[in-house]
Amino acid sequence: MKHEQEGEYKQSSIFLTPSEVVEYLYCPRFTYFMNCLNIPQHEEQRHKVMLGRDLHDKKKMINRGYLRKKVECLKKDIDVYMVSKKYRLKGIVDEVLFLKDGTLAPFDYKFAEYKEYVYRTHRIQSILYGLMIQDWYDAEVNKGFVCYSRSNYKVKKIIFRKNDFYAGEKIIEEILKIIQLGYYPKKTTYSVRCIDCCYRNICV
Questions:
Q1: 2-194 maps to CATH 3.90.320.10
Q2: HEC string of 84-117?
Q3: pLDDT for residue 91
Q4: Cβ atoms of residues 156 and 118 within 8 Å
Q5: Count of H helices and E strands in the chain?
Q6: Distance (Å, rounded) from C-alpha 179 to C-alpha 189?
Q7: What are phi and psi of 68, to 5 degrees?
Q8: Taking the model in full, what pTM does it have?
Q9: Per-residue pLDDT tens digits for 10-27
Q10: Measured between alpha carbons, how far is residue 15 from residues 82, 96, 175 in Å?
Q11: Residue 56 contacts residue 19 (beta carbons within 8 Å)
């Protein structure tokens, strides 16, 4: 009983960021190396990461008013830091949109091109932001928006369904289990992802 209580306490004190969830989806061993062994990624050595961070600095200079017509937005909160004890999530949402239909929606900037579909990782990240917004604002969230900077800031809408939120919660549970138990998960089945991985020299 004591060990079970300690395990529950350990899990309850862990908060994930949507970015950490995306890294898990890219390869589950990211979670192990970062959260169990505390080995940093050294992201500053990755060019795309730095360009992505630069975008998030530059987006503050963009005329955000153009969104009002495109997505029927009444107002917005910018760079909102949220912590959700319910979903074990924390992080900053680029924008929280207050829509005409009374619902709220996350708006996320991506340093990427739109290739006729929304990447699975972008979709799930938006869903996780939706969960956080629901809990933080105690409001309904049924859609999100992703802005692709390398496609002339093209904005794509993502519709959220109950199953989407359920899937997001299950992924969070899987990650917390790795961290709590400290077990070594299977690596990604996509070997091409290993080529540019910062952990490739220690991943066995």
A1: yes
A2: ECCCCEEEEEEEEEEECCCCEEEEEEECCCCCCC
A3: 96
A4: yes
A5: 7, 5
A6: 21
A7: -55, -40
A8: 0.83
A9: 456 889 999 999 999 999
A10: 11, 20, 11
A11: no
